Amino acid sequence: MRISIDQGVCIGAGQCALTAPDVFTQDDDGFSELLPGREDGNGSPLVREAARACPVAAISVEDA
């Protein structure tokens, strides 16, 4: 699985970090980012749900 966050689209709603806190976090400005070492989703079943929860569709998830 490959996860990417479009930083130009992200508004910092934080839905991804709330939905999958083992993969996503927010930076000092409140924008979403992946936790170090979690670029592949680390097998979390909530990654796709976190992408769907993003109100501006800034997260994309692709199968590797």
So how many helices? 2
Q: Main beta sheet: strand number and arrangement?
A: 2 strands, antiparallel
Tally the structural domains: 1
How far apart are the termini?
5 Å
Structural class: alpha+beta
CATH class category label? Alpha Beta
Report the radius of gyration as a whole number of Å: 10 Å
Anisotropy-based shape:
globular
CATH architecture: 2-Layer Sandwich
Residue-averaged pLDDT:
94
Q: Uncertain spans, ≥5 residues at pLDDT below 50?
A: none
CATH topology: Alpha-Beta Plaits
Beta strand count: 4
Query: What order do the SSEs take from the amino end to the carboxyl end, as H and E?
Result: EHEEHE
Strand content: 15-25%
Give me the side-by-side strand order of the main sheet: 1-4
Summarize the amount of helix as a percent range: 10-25%
Organism: Streptomyces cirratus
Domain 4Fe-4S ferredoxin-type: 1-29
Keywords: 3Fe-4S, Electron transport, Iron, Iron-sulfur, Metal-binding, Transport
Protein name: Ferredoxin
Walk me through this protein's architecture.
This protein has helices spanning 15-19, 47-53, and strands at residues 2-5, 24-26, 32-34, 59-62. By secondary structure, it is an alpha+beta fold. It has a single domain (2-62), classed as Alpha-Beta Plaits, CATH 3.30.70. Strand 2 and strand 3 form a beta hairpin. The relative contact order is 0.35.
